[in-house]
TrEMBL record:
Similarity comment: family membership: Belongs to the EPSP synthase family. MurA subfamily.
One Pfam family here: EPSP_synthase
Protein name: UDP-N-acetylglucosamine 1-carboxyvinyltransferase
Sequence ranges assigned to domain Enolpyruvate transferase in this UniProt record: 6-418
Reactions catalysed: phosphoenolpyruvate + UDP-N-acetyl-alpha-D-glucosamine = UDP-N-acetyl-3-O-(1-carboxyvinyl)-alpha-D-glucosamine + phosphate
Organism phylogeny: Bacteria, Pseudomonadati, Pseudomonadota, Alphaproteobacteria, Sphingomonadales
Pathway: Cell wall biogenesis; peptidoglycan biosynthesis
Subcellular location: Cytoplasm
Length: 430
């Protein structure tokens, strides 16, 4: 068990350079398997899943150099032998995005049945299997493994997703680059990290039309070259530090090169009386003296924050706004339209003295503005929930403990040093 001890009650102030987005870094690393040319990636965060992929590439026979201090990762897959074999790492869901590259390169990929990730409810792999089959792969079960074998190049295909899944969209795009002709995906996910993967692939020479929209077309059979690419800031982390300013009554500026992605996020902060400004490459939130839930013009309707696939508020950001709902005077309904297991952690908030009501697996009401007290809480294996609990603890005068807080390290290697620099006394304890 890894715990965080937090002594809160300070108004956080300062400037932050956020990390890259884990959800962009991992698919881009997987997509590098489509090239034999040298690739340099910059601003690579030192997180567990990157280390797992690094180790897997070395096991395959790739030449990989990672300067962790400089955050630079150099990759050369031309040294992989055609006879190479490796079972994908089970401990991360991103493993499934290496299957297209392995099928293209080796003709076979093996995946353990239980692919793990955050504890957010059922996350099936059937949509991915449908993508691989559409692009000419056979799938079978051998012992504890699902084995995919490539039948050879196939023409481009058209697929209409039942749900705008991020990883399914990414797998379709990567697979389509290995086909012949044009492929089209309808109801594609369009999150910023999906767009970033497309930008990286275009830098390598891919021809992709429609990124950032629900319909994406990909030209296949394009030989991909090398690239020198710098990851942009993680919009989740930018929003999280802004929320830390709001919840502690502080003033924080965060480097942000994509403020155009924040229009709806900014409006959501406004629902709690907090205002975000974007200028000179930074986003700033100077908190009001008190957070108050803003009343709707339609006065009998409860203020809502609804999370769904982009361009809605991302489900990954819902916990940080729940933390604001706990602090702000008034009632707020939070609606997670994505994960049925995404709100069960709300009972931990009561240990701080917060008042919440779970309406059903998808909807939660906070009755904010209560006097909160330090407490010891336990985080589920969900990155943003661990951060939300830390946020509430940071806003309370006194010492709190977040048990099982290790998920934070999965996405944000510098998160604790960063908030420590802003004025929170926080330390890890095993």
């Amino acid at each position: 068990m890894t715990a965080l001890h937090v002594r809160g009650g300070q108004k956080l102030q300062g400037k932050i350079d956020p990390s890259a987005n884990k959800n962009a870094v991992l698919p881009i690393l997987c997509a590098t398997l489509l090239s034999n040319a040298p690739i340099t990636l910059r601003n690579v965060p030192e997180i567990t899943d990157v280390q797992r992929i690094h180790d897997f590439f070395q096991e395959l026979g790739s030449t990989v150099k990672w300067d962790k201090a400089a955050q630079v990762l150099e990759i050369d897959h031309s040294t992989i032998s055609m006879s190479a074999r490796a079972t994908l790492p089970q401990a991360m869901r991103a493993s499934i995005m290496m299957i297209p590259g392995l099928l293209w390169r080796l003709g076979e990929a093996r995946l353990e049945h239980e692919v793990k990730g955050c504890t957010l409810g059922a996350r099936e792999i059937d949509p991915h299997v449908a993508v691989f089959k559409a692009f000419g792969a056979d799938a079978s079960t051998e012992g504890k493994n699902i084995v995919f074998r490539n039948r050879g190049k196939v023409p481009g295909t058209r697929m209409w997703l039942e749900y705008a899944s991020v990883t399914t969209t990414e797998n379709f795009i990567i697979s389509a680059l290995c086909a012949t002709g044009t492929s089209e995906i309808v109801n594609a996910a369009c999150e910023p990290h999906v767009q970033e993967m497309c930008t990286f692939l275009e830098l390598m020479g891919a021809k992709i039309r429609g990124k950032g929209t629900s319909t994406v077309k990909v030209e296949g059979a394009t030989e991909l070259g090398g690239a020198d690419y710098t990851f942009v800031e993680d919009f989740h982390e930018v929003a999280t530090f802004l929320a830390l300013a709001a919840v502690t009554g502080g003033d924080i500026s965060v480097r942000n090169s994509q403020p155009e992605m924040f229009m709806l996020i900014d409006r959501t902060f406004e629902k709690f009386g907090a205002h975000v400004e974007h200028a000179n490459g930074f986003s700033r939130l100077n908190a009001p003296d008190e957070l108050v839930v803003q009343q709707n013009f339609t006065s009998h309707i409860t203020t809502k924050v609804e999370a769904a696939p982009w361009p809605y508020i991302p489900a990954d950001l819902l916990p940080i706004f729940i933390a604001l709902g706990v602090k702000a005077k008034g009632q707020t309904m939070f609606w997670n339209k994505v994960y049925e297991g995404g709100l069960t952690w709300h009972t931990e908030l009561s240990l701080f003295g917060a008042h919440t009501l779970l309406c059903d697996p998808h909807r939660l009401i906070t009755f904010g503005g209560n006097h909160l007290v330090p407490g010891t809480v336990t985080s589920p294996y969900i990155i943003r929930v661990a951060i939300a609990l830390l946020m509430v603890a940071a806003s309370i005068d006194g010492e709190s403990t977040i048990l099982d807080a290790d998920p934070i390290r999965r996405a944000h290697p510098n998160f604790v040093p960063n908030i420590d620099s802003l004025g929170v006394n926080v330390k890890w304890a095993d």
